[in-house]
C-alpha cells in the first residue's frame, strides 16, 4: 500500500515537468508570430515622425474676394488701409496672410506644395508627452531635437494614449509642464514665445508599425513689417511702432474633448512693439512681431513717430485690423503719392511747384513771374537777381553790365547763421519762403531727372554775357508734367562783381555756411550737379523753398 502511494506521488512531478516543456515549446512557436518590435511584456515601440508646421488656412467666408484664376474667385484675407502722411502722400498699409496663396483648389493646382507642412529648422527642441486617455494618467515624456535621430518610445499595446507635443521654436529651450501628473490638470503657463502645439489620441497595435506623425500648429500670430519710402527718401527716425492687441503671456490647458486646448491670456491690451533691424534707408524691415491674442477684428497698428526726408509725422494709426491666431502675416507700409501729388500750385501768392512734398518757387528770386519759367530756350527775364551770401540786398540783376561793379562789397563777412533753416531777417525770399539747404536740394535731385535746354557755351571765365538761353531742367519722376527750370545765369565774382560763366553754369545759393565760406549749387555742362564752397561775397541767384 505504501509502495503504491509512493509511485502515485512520483507521477505528478514527472507529468508537471513534461507539461512545462510542452507549454514552453508552444510559447516559443507563438512568439515567432509576434511583431519584432513587441517585447515579451506586451509592449510595442512608437516611432516619432516630426513632419513640420501646418500653416494656418483661412476658412472664413467674410473676407474680401480680391483675385481670380480661370474665373474662379477665392478669398485672400488681404487687408489694405490708407492714411494721409501729408498733402502729397499717403501711407498705404497692406496686411497679407502667408496662407493667402492656399485659399482654393484653383490655387492649390498651381502650387503642388499646397498643404505640405513646413519643416522646422534644424536644432529646434520639442517635447512629446504621453497620457493614458481613459484615466488621464501621466505615462512618460521625451525631448527631441530636429535634425537628430528620434528615439522611439516603449508603450503597452492595445491602449489608447493621448499625445501632447509642443515647442517654442527655439534651439535648446523647452518650457516645463505644470501639474503634469494628469491630463486633466496639465498645462503650460507664462508662455511668451512662439508656441507650437499638437494633440492626438492613438491606440497602439501589437501587429502594426506604430508611428506618431506630428504636425505642429502655431498658436500665436506673427507679423513682419516693411516700410517703403523710396519715392521720397530715407527713413531716418522711427519710434513706438506697436501692434495691438497682444497679451504679455498665455497659458494653454492640455485637457479638452475637441483636441483644441483652450488658451487664456494675461494682460491682453499691452500690445507688442515692432523692432526694426536698421534705419537710414528708403526701405526698412522689422524682425517678426509675435502677437499673443485670440481672433480679433479690431486690431490696431500705430506709428508713434516717423521721419522721412526730414518730414516728421506723429501718431499715425490703422484701425479695424483682423488678425487670426497662428497665422503668419507680412505687413507692407508704402508711401505713395496722393492724387494731388507733384503739381503746380500758387503758394502764398507765388507760382510754385510741389515735388516730393517740397514746395519750390518756379522762378529765380527777382525774375519776371509773368513769364513762363520753363520757356525753351530760357530768356533774360528769367535769370533774376544776384545776392551775396547772408545778405538781403540785391547786388546785380540780369541787365547789370558784365564788368566789375564799383563799390562792390567785400566785407564784412556775414555771420554763419545769417541765413538759416529758420527764416532770418537777412533772408531775401518773400513771405513763407526761405533760402534752401543743400540737403533739401539734394532731396529734390533724388526724386527727379535732370537735363538741359538752350545753347551751352564751352568753358570761358568771361564767356558770352548775352547767352541767356541755357538752363537746367529738373523734372519730377512721379509726374513728368511738373518741373523746375534753373537758368545758367553764372555768378558775379567775389572780388569786384565781374560777371563770370553765364551760359555755362547754373548756380544757386544754399543757406549752409562753414567757417566763412558758403555753399552753392553748380551744374557742369547742365548735367552734372556738384556742391562747392565759395567766397560769400560772390553774387549768385537764389531759388526759394517754402518753409
UniProtKB/TrEMBL annotation:
Q: Which residues form a coiled coil?
A: none
Give the residue range of the signal peptide.
Answer: 1-30
Superkingdom of origin: Bacteria
Pfam families listed in its UniProt record = Fib_succ_major
What positions does the domain Fibrobacter succinogenes major paralogous occupy?
354-545
Q: Where are the transmembrane segments?
A: none
Task: Establish whether keyword Ion transport is in the entry.
Answer: no
Polar residues bias: start-end ranges:
418-427
The entry's keywords: Signal
Residue ranges for the region (Disordered) are 403-428
Protein name, per record: Fibrobacter succinogenes major paralogous domain-containing protein
Amino acid at each position: 500500500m505504501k509502495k503504491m502511494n509512493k509511485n502515485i506521488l512520483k507521477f505528478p512531478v514527472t507529468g508537471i515537468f513534461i507539461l512545462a516543456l510542452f507549454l514552453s515549446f508552444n510559447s516559443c512557436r507563438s512568439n515567432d508570430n509576434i511583431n519584432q518590435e513587441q517585447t515579451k511584456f506586451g509592449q510595442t515601440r512608437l516611432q516619432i515622425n516630426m513632419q513640420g508646421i501646418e500653416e494656418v488656412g483661412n476658412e472664413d467666408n467674410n473676407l474680401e474676394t480680391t483675385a481670380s484664376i480661370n474665373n474662379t474667385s477665392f478669398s485672400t484675407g488681404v487687408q489694405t488701409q490708407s492714411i494721409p502722411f501729408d498733402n502729397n502722400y499717403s501711407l498705404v498699409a497692406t496686411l497679407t496672410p502667408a496662407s493667402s496663396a492656399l485659399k482654393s483648389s484653383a490655387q492649390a493646382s498651381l502650387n503642388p506644395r499646397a498643404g505640405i507642412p513646413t519643416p522646422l529648422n534644424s536644432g529646434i527642441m520639442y517635447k512629446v508627452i504621453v497620457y493614458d486617455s481613459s484615466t488621464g494618467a501621466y505615462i512618460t515624456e521625451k525631448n527631441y531635437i530636429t535634425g537628430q535621430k528620434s528615439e522611439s518610445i516603449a508603450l503597452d499595446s492595445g491602449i489608447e494614449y493621448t499625445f501632447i507635443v509642443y515647442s517654442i521654436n527655439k534651439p535648446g529651450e523647452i518650457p516645463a509642464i505644470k501639474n503634469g501628473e494628469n491630463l486633466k490638470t496639465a498645462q503650460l503657463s507664462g508662455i511668451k514665445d512662439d508656441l507650437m502645439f499638437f494633440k492626438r489620441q492613438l491606440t497602439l497595435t501589437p501587429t502594426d508599425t506604430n508611428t506618431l506623425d506630428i504636425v505642429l500648429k502655431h498658436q500665436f500670430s506673427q507679423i513682419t513689417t516693411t516700410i517703403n519710402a523710396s519715392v521720397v527718401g530715407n527713413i531716418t527716425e522711427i519710434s513706438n511702432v506697436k501692434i495691438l492687441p497682444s497679451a504679455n503671456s498665455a497659458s494653454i490647458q492640455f485637457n479638452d474633448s475637441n483636441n483644441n486646448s483652450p488658451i487664456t491670456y494675461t494682460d491682453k491690451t499691452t500690445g507688442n512693439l515692432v523692432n526694426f533691424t536698421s534705419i537710414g534707408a528708403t526701405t526698412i524691415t522689422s524682425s517678426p512681431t509675435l502677437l499673443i491674442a485670440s481672433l480679433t477684428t479690431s486690431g490696431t497698428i500705430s506709428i508713434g513717430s516717423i521721419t522721412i526726408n526730414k518730414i516728421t509725422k506723429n501718431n499715425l494709426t490703422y484701425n479695424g485690423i483682423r488678425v487670426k491666431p497662428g497665422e503668419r502675416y507680412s505687413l507692407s507700409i508704402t508711401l505713395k503719392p496722393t492724387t494731388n501729388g507733384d503739381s503746380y500750385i500758387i503758394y502764398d501768392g507765388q507760382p510754385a511747384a510741389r515735388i516730393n512734398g517740397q514746395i519750390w518757387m518756379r522762378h529765380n528770386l527777382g525774375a519776371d513771374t509773368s513769364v513762363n519759367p520753363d520757356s525753351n530756350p530760357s530768356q533774360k527775364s528769367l535769370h533774376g537777381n544776384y545776392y551775396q551770401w547772408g545778405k538781403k540786398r540785391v547786388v546785380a540783376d540780369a541787365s547789370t553790365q558784365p564788368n566789375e561793379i564799383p563799390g562792390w562789397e567785400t566785407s564784412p563777412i556775414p555771420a554763419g547763421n545769417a541765413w538759416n533753416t529758420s527764416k532770418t531777417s537777412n533772408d531775401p525770399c518773400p513771405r513763407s519762403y526761405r533760402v534752401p539747404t543743400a540737403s533739401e536740394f539734394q532731396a529734390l535731385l533724388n526724386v527727379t531727372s535732370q537735363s538741359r535746354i538752350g545753347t551751352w557755351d564751352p568753358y570761358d571765365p568771361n564767356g558770352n554775357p548775352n547767352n541767356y538761353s541755357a538752363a537746367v531742367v529738373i523734372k519730377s519722376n512721379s509726374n513728368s508734367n511738373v518741373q523746375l527750370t534753373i537758368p545758367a545765369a553764372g555768378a558775379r565774382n567775389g572780388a569786384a562783381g565781374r560777371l563770370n560763366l553765364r551760359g555755362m553754369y547754373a548756380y544757386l545759393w544754399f543757406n549752409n555756411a562753414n567757417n566763412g565760406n558758403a555753399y552753392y549749387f553748380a551744374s557742369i555742362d547742365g548735367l552734372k550737379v556738384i556742391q562747392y564752397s565759395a567766397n560769400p561775397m560772390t553774387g549768385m541767384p537764389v531759388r526759394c523753398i517754402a518753409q
